[in-house]
Amino acid sequence: MSLTGSDLLTKVKELGEVSKSDLVRACGYVSTKEGGGERLNFTAFYEALLEAKGVSLGTTGIAGIGKGGRKLSYVATVQGNGNLLIGKAYTALLDLEAGEEFEIKLGRKQIKLIPAGADDEDN
User: Fold this and answer.
1) What is the rounded CA–CA span in Å between residue 7 and residue 74?
2) How far apart are CA 77 and CA 114, in angstroms?
3) Fewer CB within 10 A of the end CB, N or C, for the chain?
């Protein structure tokens, strides 16, 4: 059973400095693949963690608060040099740290960032 709310926050604090895979596994965000292998559900874990911290990822697009109390728009704009900047407020919401790596998956009008070494649960 996957932990949620205060139980999830308590478990995350209790586990301390463990790998992200171990954290997701210990909080119950694991499913079984068709071949019997384990699939770690990182997206579901991070969504539950954000919700437990009081950040709603509803359809309004204004959930979360950025630096200086501004509401996050969840909209990114390609810069003049071609870079797409996500921003510190968003990475902080997911407790991401400098140096973490992600696989970039391109879809028909979407970009997915998947933690390196994790399975894309939508496959």
Assistant:
1) 27
2) 20
3) N
How many CB atoms within 10 Å of residue 33? 10
Q: Which residue has the tokens 């119950």?
A: 28
Strand 38-40, strand 102-106: pairing: unpaired
Indicate the residue type of 91: T
How long, in residues, is the chain? 123
Tell me the whole-structure pTM to 2 decimals.
0.47
CA pair distance 4, 10, nearest whole angstrom? 10
Rounded alpha-carbon distances, angstroms, from residue 53 to 62, 104, 105 = 16, 27, 28
Q: What is the CA 55 to chain-centroid distance, rounded? A: 12
Q: Are 115 and 94 in contact (CB under 8 A)?
A: no
Measured between alpha carbons, how far is 41 from 25 in angstroms, rounded to an integer?
Answer: 9
pLDDT digits (tens, 9 = 90+) for 74-113: 788 888 899 888 887 788 778 788 888 888 999 888 888 8
What pLDDT digit, counting tens, does each position of 11-35 carry? 999 998 899 899 999 999 998 887 8
